[in-house]
Amino acid sequence: MSDRIRVIVHNQSRLLRESILNILDDCFEVIDPQSRLATGLSPKTMWNGRANGGPDRYSDGMSAGGAVVTLEPPAGNGSSERTADIVLFDLASLKTDAWNFRNWYGEQAKLAMIADEFSAHHMRMALRFGVRGYLLNRMAPTAFVLSLRLIHAGEPVVPEECFDYFSPTALRRGGEDGAIAQHESELLGYPGLYPRHARILKLIMDGCSNKEIAREMGMTEDLVKLHVRHIMQTINVRNRTQAALWAAQSGIIQEMEYFLERAAP
To answer: Which residues are in the HTH luxR-type domain (predicted)?
Structure first.
């Protein structure tokens, strides 16, 4: 088939790349980017539904279906072969290689990210690179294949949690100190943490004491201590320095800032 959807799986895990190869049907051609990754797929130029050199997945008399795998042509070889249609990558690649995807794989390739869980912060990062699909590992294989077809057709694909997070309706929660109830929803991607916790983490990063945090946030010092203890237990750190480092690396401060912008009248 000359009109197969060409997919590059840009991921260091050979196990994941070969698992995706086994999921995709014969409408796809998987390009193994060996020039970018340490290990390639099995050394076959064509993959026809056989796994690890075993028998066909289909009974006798039926054609063996499955994606075709080819090796990425060396850079600068003057090949006129068309470029990839879709580039699949994970969170680690988003942080290290996303800047180079367009140079490596062409401007026309549609980008799709595979993640373990939904994170609005990581999704916004991905969108800035032009990602058209945010796929979760828990997807059923049939849903995964359909998602790739939709992405190839130009349709964006995002997880269900995205709609919950970006909905204009926030959950109404009462103040833990008995104050007037405020609109506040849990920060998705940070289970058990709310914008007030992110504000406290930001003040901890700024070197504020509990007394200074209490004054800044208009609550008692004892309540601040309860919040700090809850934060440390939730993110599994032992002291304020570790909490500040976690906050700086996790993206929760940007998440809080986005929440405040969304909640503003």
So the answer is: 186-251
